[in-house]
Amino acid sequence: MKTIKLKDILSISGKGGLFKFIAQARNGIVVESIGDNKRHVAPGTARVSSLEDIAIFTHEEEVPLSDIFMMIHEKAEGKETISHKSSPDELKNFFQELVPEFDDERVYISDIKKVFQWYNQLHSHDLLEVVDKEEEKEDAEEDKSGSGPDKPVAAKRDPAKKEVTARKDVTPKKELAKKSPAARKNTTSK
Questions:
Q1: Cα 14-123-29 angle, rounded to 5 deg
Q2: CATH class, range 2-136
Q3: Which among 53, 75, 100, 190 has most CB atoms closer than 10 A?
C-alpha cells in the first residue's frame, strides 16, 4: 500500500503556509518556508504541528493525513486538485468522495480547506513523495531507535538535547583543590 511521505513538513499556528524542519536551535527550531525558502527560528512557544502526526476523524477511526493526501493524489492522477478557495459545498462534496466516512461534526470546512491548500502547496513544490507504507514505518522506527540496519548506534543523536561530553580522566576543580599538590599533578597530567 502506498502513502505520501510527510516527514519534516510542519505547520506553525499563526503563520501561513508550510515549513520544512531544518535544525534544532537553542530557543526553538530552524524552519524554512516552503513558499519562499526563507529560513527563520520558530520559538519554542510556537504551536508547531508535524503533518505526519495529523489525522482526519472518521466515525470509526482516524485516517492519517498522509493517506488522505495519497487518496487526493490518486483521484487527481498526480496533478493539482480542487482549490481551497472553492465554495464550501464543493470542497465538502469532493472531500466526501475521498473519505465518505469522515466525521462531519468534528471535521470542519476550515480543516478541509487546509487539507486541499496543503496538498496543492506540496504539489506545486514537488514535495509529494509516494512511498510504501512499510518503508515509511521502517523510517519512523529507525528515527525512534536512533540507528538503522547499516548505521552505528552512536551515529544519531537527539537534536533537542545538547551534547555534553565529560572526560572521565579529569577531576572536577573542587575536588582538585582539596588534594595535595602531588595528587593534583598526577590527576591533571593524565
A1: 40
A2: mainly alpha
A3: 75
